[in-house]
Amino acid sequence: MTSNSILIEARGIKRHYLRGSETVKAVDGIDLEIHAAEMVSILGPSGSGKTTLIHLLSCLDSPTEGSLSINGKPVAGLKEDELTKVRRGVLGFVFQKFYLLPTLSVAENVELPLLFYRQPVRREETMAVLRQVNLEDHARFMPNQLSGGQMQRVAIARALIIKPKILIADEPTGNLDTENGIAVFDLFRALVREQGISVIVTSHNLVFGYRADRIITLADGRIVREEKGPAAA
Amino acid sequence: MRFISLALKNLFRRPVRTALTIAGVALAVAVAVSLAGFNLGYQQAIERSIDRLGFQVMIMAKGCPYEAATMMLKGGTGLLYLPADTFAQVHSDPEILSITPIFIGIAEKQGSSIREDSSSAFAVLTGVEPKTFLEMKPWLEFQSGTGFDGGKWFSPDATDEVVMGYEAATYEQRKVGDKFLATVSPYGQAEPVSKEFKIVGVLKRTGTQDDGTVFLPIKTAQAFFNRPNQLTILGIKLKDFSGGNLQEFESRWIKLPEVQVVSLEQVKSTLVMLIGTAQVMIVAVTVIAILVAIIGVINTILMSVYERTGEIGVMKALGAFRGDVFQLIWIETLGVCLAGSIAGGVIALGGAHLTEKAIKAVIDIGIQGSIVTITWPVLLGAFAGAAVVGFFAGLYPAWRAASMLPVDAIREGIG
């Protein structure tokens, strides 16, 4: 795969829904391509459609209109389990809330997706991804023994264990201070640079968002600006 | 890591809530196991007690046959007596294999005991013919050891010898060669009469009413109670104890005035019926307990599902299929039910003695031995029942969790 390979291709996607008698146009006709080994920031104020767009791009939600393909597979009209199949092995997820299981150790949390993939657990692989996020010494820790930044790095390791082509991060710095937020974005940059993973990240914080290769700004469910970031320059 | 270990770890998130839910299931299982143990044990105890009477058919004075049978099992007052010539008429019946006449009387314990008993205390004095009585109960043996060696049955004509059952002797603290003082109110006499007997033997424990009985020669007993030739029961073994033969025998002797023929099979079934009402109530309580437990389990697991809405969404985002989530929640439910069933089984086993005491306190019809028998099949049945309950109780919460759309679940979790 070259760096120009298109992993996600969206054409005129819309996501409208009814709230009472009002139609909410959360995403209202977006064309977008995500290429391999690029980091894309989606910025915008609250309610601009960032999260809805990222849910569409990650097959967690389906567009009401338009076409969308992930890794070359059209996903329109697929049922939930079929969308899960599309996601598996392609998409890794990081969320604002870390969603670590409190009864599992750090290593077990990282290995959780392997349970759903019916793949054997290889502790050396777990340790390798924990090393990537600088938490190899914390494998036996429980989540409540970690700081917010450490928990987010565990969540990133959990996304990486399945070797995704695209890492999707929805407001990953929302619960972090500036220092930890920058560290997370630096980690994303390293993943893009060293492993060729594409990263799509939403943020309302320009300081973080402008650390990407490409910055897309949304307002009212539409792309209002698309620019190259300083990292790509 | 496997689904089962993940599910079990999830249950430890809210240990108090999980423990309370398990306790609810355990209570229901304990009640169910105790009930099943009672059903089983009670029937066995009735059969054992009646079989240990030794005879298949009783001829006794007209009245409530089941009251009489209960009296045979448990002792009591209000005895009725057969006309004096009944034995002479019946004993030559060709269908009879063996027959033994029995006279039962009640002695007051005051003056006959070394204990200070309440005025209602009594001792059962049973007059028997050793030869025919032992044909019915060949298992009766004498106690041995210091103070008990040399035990023997009295001779039929002895006037001052008794044989004591195991519990009667233990209660009175008597051994072979000791004296036993009995006070009775003879028929037709205003004043009680006391008489001292010599104990010539103490029987081994049998687990029947015989243990609490004082045996004496039948003629001596009849004379002591001033009822010469009268009998309480004729115990009979038939040559052929089939339904038709028994009916013929019954119809032959039922014609005698003031006499009834009672099959111990009838007594068995009636004693089982006697407890039927109580069993229905216990079953109703058990069903309610099980329903409450099921609702408790569903409620707990549903709460847990709702609390983990965001987490379930993330699991789906990470690659879990609907079936995976269903499986996870369903295993949790099953885990609660199985843990509850194990705890309930242990409680039922540990509390069997208390259950038995409680039941006997409410309904005592003289059944000897344990009436609550908790066996492996009963316990395994309870575990299987809990698994079935867990299977159904887990369906709805598991379906709810599996049906959550990942995007909604994540949104709700963040909210």
> How many individual domains of chain A?
1
Number of strands of chain A: 10
Largest sheet of chain B: 9 strands, mixed
- Low-confidence segments of chain B, ≥5 residues, pLDDT <50? none
Instruction: Kindly report the name of the CATH homologous superfamily of chain A.
Output: P-loop containing nucleotide triphosphate hydrolases
Report strand order across the widest sheet of chain A. Answer: 6-7-8-3-9-10
* Average pLDDT taken over every residue of chain B: 84
Strand order across the biggest sheet of chain B? 5-6-4-7-3-2-8-1-9
The helix fraction of chain A, in percent, is 25-40%
Per CATH, the class of chain A reads Alpha Beta
Percent of residues in helices of chain B: 40-55%
Question: How would you describe this protein?
Answer:
- The complex is a heterodimer of chains A (233) and B (415).
- Chain A is an alpha/beta fold and 233 residues long.
- Chain A has helices at 50-57, 80-87, 106-117, 123-132, 148-160, 178-195, 206-209; strands spanning 6-19, 22-35, 39-43, 65-70, 73-74, 91-95, 166-170, 198-203, 214-219, 222-228.
- In chain A, the strands form two sheets. Chain A has a six-stranded mixed beta sheet with strand order 6-7-8-3-9-10, with helices on both faces.
- The longest helix of chain A is centred in the C-terminal third of the chain and has 18 residues, at 178-195.
- With 415 residues, chain B is an alpha+beta fold.
- Chain B folds into two domains: 3-48 and 275-414, no CATH class; 63-257, no CATH class.
- Chain B is built from 15 helices and nine strands.
- In chain B, a hairpin with an 8-residue loop joins strand 5 (179-184) and strand 6.
- The mean pLDDT of chain B is 84.
- The A-B interface holds A 51, 55, 58, 60-61, 80-81, 84, 87-88, 91, 93, 95-97, 99, 101-104, 108, 111-113, 115-117, 121, 158-159, 162 and B 1-3, 6, 9-10, 12-13, 310-311, 313-322, 324, 405-407, 410-411, 413-414.
